[in-house]
């Protein structure tokens, strides 16, 4: 598909264009699908963190990507996606160790309880802020946490058609937000700047509203959104 050829690239010290090395920390519904799409854009993707090595191997083979341990995925990565249940976040951070320091991490996790029905952080705090407290040395960008994974394939297939669906994107690091924005565009979405990590207090509850819209209301789960300001 024509739209799949354009992609976000980094420039090396000589200004030469390079694909990005992306580590997927949590290779389930979110990580598996986003990783596959980034690999289709030409990025060097490593799938990690699953209970099944054969699943990681299959994901990597199908996507033309690699797989490995969390530490291997973090090593040398330009960007990482944190895509695990909230209860697994500490384990991933522990396995990532100090090498996560200074890295750009796209976080799509919603701080949910085991039953996935209630937020365990809020209303005057957020998972995004909690992660930043746990690892202040990481360049955190929250995104994709309000998009059901079922939307990723159809959005990617329609990439390049306008208008692109939006993704709430919030971070306290503007430069990191900009790089993340390129990766968001690569998979067919438009980043919608939703301010700093503090706004996770409002976006994370909204993620539960998207669950209602995607899975409870009629019409199927491939839900996307666009906000418009009228003049
Ligand atoms: N799914 C959505 O549509 C959606 C939308 C917005 C936000 N989110 C958020 O995104 C995050 C990821 O959701 P998801 O739906 O992608 O979850 P998921 O499909 O359950 O994927 C989580 C990944 O973590 C791995 N994992 C779980 N326990 C593990 C353990 N003990 N050791 C090693 N690996 C383990 C899983 O391994 P296995 O491969 O063995 O299962 C899987 O690869 C969550 O925080 C969720 O709230 C999800």
Description:
The protein is an alpha/beta fold. The protein has a single domain, classed as Rossmann fold, CATH 3.40.50.720. Helices cover 35% and strands 16% of the residues. It has eight helices and ten strands. The protein has helices spanning 29-40, 53-63, 70-74, 89-96, 127-134, 152-157, 174-186, 200-216; strands at residues 10-11, 17-18, 21-25, 44-48, 66-67, 79-82, 104-107, 139-142, 166-169, 190-193. The strands form three sheets. The chain has a six-stranded parallel sheet with strand order 5-4-3-6-7-8, sandwiched between helices. Strand 1 and strand 2 form a beta hairpin. The structure holds NADP nicotinamide-adenine-dinucleotide phosphate (NAP).
Distinctive features:
231 residues; alpha/beta; Rossmann fold; six-stranded parallel beta sheet; two-stranded antiparallel sheet; 10 strands; disordered N terminus
User: Which ligands accompany this protein?
Assistant: NADP nicotinamide-adenine-dinucleotide phosphate
CATH superfamily: NAD(P)-binding Rossmann-like Domain
CATH architecture: 3-Layer(aba) Sandwich
In oligomeric terms, what are we looking at? single chain
Order of helices and strands: EEEHEHEHEHEHEHEHEH
Write a brief structural summary.
Residues 21-109 form the Pyrroline-5-carboxylate reductase catalytic N-terminal domain. The chain is of the alpha/beta class and 231 residues long. It is 35% helix and 16% strand.
List the helices and strands and how they pair.
Elements: E1 10-11, E2 17-18, E3 21-25, H1 29-40, E4 44-48, H2 53-63, E5 66-67, H3 70-74, E6 79-82, H4 89-96, E7 104-107, H5 127-134, E8 139-142, H6 152-157, E9 166-169, H7 174-186, E10 190-193, H8 200-216
Parallel strand pairs: 3-4, 3-6, 4-5, 6-7, 7-8, 9-10
Antiparallel strand pairs: 1-2
Helix pairs in contact: 1-2
Bound molecules: NADP nicotinamide-adenine-dinucleotide phosphate.
